[in-house]
Amino acid sequence: MKTIRSELIVSLRATLVLALVTCGLYPLVVTGVSVSLFPEQAHGSLIVDKEGQIRGSTLLSQSFAAEGYFHPRPSAAGAGHDAAGSSGSNLGPTSKKLHDAIKARIAAYRASNGLAADAPVPADAVTASGSGLDPHISEPNAALQAKRVAKARGLNIADVEAIIAANTERPDVGLFGEKRVNVLKLNLALDGLK
């Protein structure tokens, strides 16, 4: 009986020490290091305007529906672009519901951007990302939306294309991923035009 009791005490002490280290000390150290080395990212990569108002985060998608804005990828998160409901749709490639949703999105994308009924549509324009909150669209997606945005804002298409080029991010370390455009940064750059 004494050995069981001593083993139980040792186990409880080990559990307490591990809980303090893994649930307290380790998170504090990691947070301290990240805030010190990467303050912008550690605080959510927020974009703050000249008046001090937070306009959004470069890490999370936001809904833009007006004709004068570039539209993000579709979102499966919550009611759409809801960070609290971040998730994918969990619909597989053989899902009729997914097939029908993509078919409807393709038709809506073509109609919204004045494309021909058989014009190719970039995959990211009609499919949600795994989290439902991807803040980026592909260069081809942005290029197809440029005409609509330029027309709605009364801008020259060349000016809109220049803004797209200025806001295009290169692959990470020149290798990982593809060129992409952050929709929030792009739309804020458009809003900043005189």
Question: In terms of topology, how is this protein built?
Answer:
Blueprint: H1 2-37, H2 39-42, E1 46-48, E2 54-57, H3 96-112, E3 136-138, H4 139-153, H5 157-166, E4 168-169, E5 180-182, H6 183-191
Antiparallel strand pairs: 1-2, 3-5, 4-5
Helix pairs in contact: 4-5
Description:
The chain has helices at residues 2-37, 39-42, 96-112, 139-153, 157-166, 183-191, and strands spanning 46-48, 54-57, 136-138, 168-169, 180-182. The protein is mainly alpha-helical. Strand 1 (46-48) and strand 2 (54-57) form a beta hairpin. The protein has six helices and five strands. The protein has two domains: 2-40; 45-191, no CATH class. Helix 4 (139-153) crosses helix 5 (157-166). It has a three-stranded antiparallel sheet. Strands 1-2 form a two-stranded antiparallel ribbon.
Question: Concise description?
Answer:
The protein is mainly alpha-helical and 194 residues long.
